[in-house]
């Protein structure tokens, strides 16, 4: 059974002023599920709705439509009071550690706060636990880091604090939202490794969000590809990388360095990602897609299961 299940989730945001309101649909009817101990990689261009979907899965956002199920419990409409009990089992490692940790708090305060909220322990015990986790994430000597403020840490060190805070309560579900995108290339691997170590140790379901399909293919067992708010392809990581079906996925893979030299089919999209406030009719990729047919301009393709577990939302694969 899946630990986290999103069923036909829609997330709309209202923008604008009192006089002129627009709604944008950042996530449009997406269903995914993640099993206990499973790493699910979510990829797609900037603005495709990955972070929004991750936040809905943690019920940091309440979806406009659709259901969010966690460990068999429908948490879509749960009030914050009831969600609090579940919150310690689901955690976010955010895209930007600088905005996730209160700049006025010391690292020690940032770490003991969730412990005091969720666990029945004394302040002294919480400090001991904070020290332990700092050592586990490689911030030693721990005592020294406890008293520092966020601005006294490097980006990589601060991301380690964010990981420590997410892992403190041994959650069952982690959303790692581009956890290395703001970091220097030289330390990215060590941050990913740290997240994977905890994932294995606690047998966590991990939603790993990234622009980088090559990185995701190395760590995830399954991959979902998003384009303009929709899931357009999903399947086992190995088969997505070896045999991408959706033209958008093909384009992502042909952008991996050396892919051309290795003989990977080259698919280049025209133009930029479309406007989410006014997405193209039919298939959302059609204005950019080199394979676009008439029907793609008129009708939205269904998500079809090509082989078990392998899904694609593209007219090229619909038998007509
Ligand atoms: N709280 C919000 N209020 C209004 N619009 C939002 C909000 N959060 C996201 N959006 C909009 O929803 C769309 C999807 O954003 P989201 O951050 O989910 O994309 P993303 O795939 O994570 O992009 P990136 O790779 O740049 O992080 C964007 O157009 C964004 O501007
Ligand atoms: Mg994002």
Per CATH, the class reads Alpha Beta
The major sheet is characterized as: 8 strands, mixed
Mean pLDDT, all residues: 94
Distance between the termini: 34 Å
CATH topology, by name, is: Rossmann fold
CATH architecture: 3-Layer(aba) Sandwich
Q: How much strand?
A: 15-25%
Spatial arrangement of strands, main beta sheet: 6-7-8-3-9-10-12-11
Specify the helix fraction band.
25-40%
Radius of gyration: 21 Å
Can you identify the CATH superfamily? P-loop containing nucleotide triphosphate hydrolases
Question: Stretches where pLDDT falls below 50 for ≥5 residues?
Answer: none
Summarize the helix and strand pattern as letters.
Answer: EEEHEEHEHHHHHEHEHEEHHHEE
Number of strands: 12
Q: Can you count the helices?
A: 12
Oligomer type? single chain
Overall geometric form: globular
Task: Give your account of this protein's structure.
- This protein has 320 residues and is α/β, with parallel strands linked by helices.
- It has a single domain, classed as 3-Layer(aba) Sandwich (Rossmann fold), CATH 3.40.50.
- Helices cover 33% and strands 24% of the residues.
- The protein has twelve helices and twelve strands.
- It has an eight-stranded mixed sheet, with helices on both faces. Strands 2-1-4-5 form a four-stranded antiparallel sheet.
- A hairpin with a 2-residue loop joins strand 11 and strand 12 (310-312).
- The longest helix has 17 residues, at 185-201.
- It starts with a strand and ends in an 8-residue tail after the last strand.
- The model has no long low-confidence stretch (mean pLDDT 94).
- The protein binds adenosine-5'-triphosphate and magnesium ion (MG).
- The site of adenosine-5'-triphosphate (ATP) has 15 residues, from strand 1, strand 2 and helix 1.
């Amino acid at each position: 059974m899946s630990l986290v299940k999103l069923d036909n989730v829609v997330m709309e945001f209202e923008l604008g002023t009192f006089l002129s309101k627009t709604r944008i649909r950042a996530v449009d009817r997406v269903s995914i599920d993640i099993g206990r101990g499973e790493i699910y990689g979510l990829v797609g261009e900037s603005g495709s709705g990955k972070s929004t979907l991750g936040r809905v899965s943690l019920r940091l956002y309440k979806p406009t439509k659709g259901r969010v199920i966690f460990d068999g419990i429908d948490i879509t409409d749960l009030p914050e009071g009831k969600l609090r009990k579940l919150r310690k089992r689901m955690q976010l490692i955010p895209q930007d550690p600088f905005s996730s940790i209160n700049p006025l708090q010391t690292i020690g305060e940032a770490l003991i706060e969730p412990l005091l909220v969720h666990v029945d322990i004394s302040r002294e015990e919480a400090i001991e636990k904070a020290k332990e986790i700092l050592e586990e994430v490689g911030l030693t000597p721990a005592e020294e880091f406890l008293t520092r403020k966020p601005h006294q840490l490097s980006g990589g060190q601060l991301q380690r604090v964010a990981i420590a805070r997410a892992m403190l309560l041994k959650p069952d579900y982690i959303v790692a939202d581009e956890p290395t995108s703001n970091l220097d290339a030289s330390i990215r691997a060590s941050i990913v490794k740290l997240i994977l170590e905890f994932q294995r140790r606690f047998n966590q379901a991990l939603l790993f969000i990234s622009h980088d399909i090559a990185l995701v293919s190395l760590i995830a067992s399954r991959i979902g590809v998003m384009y303009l708010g929709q899931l357009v392809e999903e399947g086992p990581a190995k088969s997505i990388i070896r045999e991408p079906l959706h033209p958008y996925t093909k384009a992502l893979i042909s952008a991996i360095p050396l892919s051309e030299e290795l003989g990977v089919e080259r698919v280049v999209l025209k133009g930029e990602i479309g406007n989410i406030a006014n997405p193209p009719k039919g298939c959302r990729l059609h204005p950019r897609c080199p394979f676009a047919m008439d029907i793609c301009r008129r009708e939205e393709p269904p998500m079809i299961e090509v082989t078990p577990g392998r899904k694609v939302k593209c007219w090229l694969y619909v038998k007509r």
